[in-house]
Give the backbone structure.
Amino acid sequence: MNLAKSKEALTKLQDYYVLAIKAPFGIFRKPFYLRETIEQMDYGGSGSFFIVFLVSLFIGMALSLQTSAELAEMGLKMYTGRVVGLSIIKEIGPVAIALSYAGRVGSGMASELGSMTLGHQVDILRVHGVSPIKKLVSPRVISSIIMLPVLTVVGDAVALLGGYFVSISVAHQSGSVYWSQIKQIMEFVTIFSGVIKPFIFGYLISTISCYMGLSTKGGARGLRKSTTEAVVYSTIMIIISDFMVTKILIMIFGIPV
Amino acid sequence: MIEFKNVMLSYGDHVVLDRVCFRCAFHEKIAVLGGSGGGKTTILKLMLGLVKPDSGQILVDDQDITVMSESELRDVRMKFSIVFQEGALFDSMNVKENVAFSLREFTKSTEEEIDKRVRDLLKILKIEDAIDLMPEELSGGMQRRVAIARSLAACEPRMMLYDEATTGLDPLTADNICNLVNELSRGEPPGRVGFIIVTHKVTDAAKVAERYIFIRNGNIIFDGNIEELKKTKDTLLRKFINELYISHGSA
């Protein structure tokens, strides 16, 4: 990599940090853009409900099917609920729903802001003295860090329900055993682990997607590139940050969480 | 006064502007001409501080805007209004909301005052019937008129900047836009509001401008009035001004 490319990469990283730091604080200064934030919450939250429902239901069912078959071989089928519950709440639920959110909402953010950038609408905001970060990015970031945890909680519940249906209908397990196993794992550490991750994922997806959108250059091809990169970088960051958050939580709570 | 001093800008290996120097007053009527991708629009963006040059100075009323922050640039930008190619209207807002945008952002006007101001502007620009339409329902000419109305809504600019204001329009609509540019430049008191129109159509430039700046490969190769332009020996410039002769029916 030559010097010019290294400089360009560092400049981009610096610009991303500026956006990522400024965006969440946008809500504390006037004007508040409440309407825009609610619109984004509706688009990102209510609009994503169906896909989250579908993804979570089938993940829960598949996990229950796989787990009960494996555990049955060892004579431990009664622990299906425990394994499904821990996997869904701590890991698979937050990650799978964040990936779905990045694919649907993150790509939408990047393409919308990219289109506004190419169409000079972002320039018009700046000419009129309106901060694009405050007007366009802050509502999307706030919306994501509120709605992704909500979607994750809903998705986890749907996945556990899907696992329940499979465990009673296919694995012929007692429903009360399944729920009692899940009840046992519902401790503060488990729930905290499952809820803290979507906050971080929501922040990463929205800041990365908005940055990619606002830095779009070069017409339709540039828009394709920025939209693709928004999803790719979000996906990578979700996976990496998932590992890091898990590691930090283990360090804090001293047990595998 | 606006002054460019040795302004250089490049995107990667592509040099957009190469040590560009020129100065102009706010009341001047200037056309910036040149081929596509020649750096014409970039000059407008530099003037507003939307893009920072790699080197050189840009002085607006003796203040170097290249070292200013976004908040400091706000006062500088209030001296200008810009109309981008295609209008750059907010596509999630209708015409009324687009024009009222800056009024809502920066003034404490009541809804009644905003409504009156928007209707007055749309009437001046002869598009009052389009008040409830969305941008995608407007023709190219109407989009640019709405963009002009929006640019005038909340401030009284000293200079209008038009980026390819007539590109992609039929001759009649382009002519109407040129008339509008002339009308707005008369202002009150007469001649107070100048403009820079960026275009590659010499015929349209000739209808409105008094000074012509021609850019090629990032350099200003011509700066003068129409008479001087007609006398040029430069082959490329001759090709551009031939269009002027054709449109006037003389060789």
The interface with chain A takes residues 12, 45, 48, 50, 70, 74, 77-78, 80-82, 84-86, 88-91, 101-102, 105-106, 150, 154, 163 of chain B (CB under 8 Å). Strands of chain B lie at 2-11, 14-24, 29-34, 55-60, 63-64, 80-83, 159-163, 194-199, 211-216, 219-224. Chain B has nine helices and ten strands. The mean pLDDT of chain B is 86.
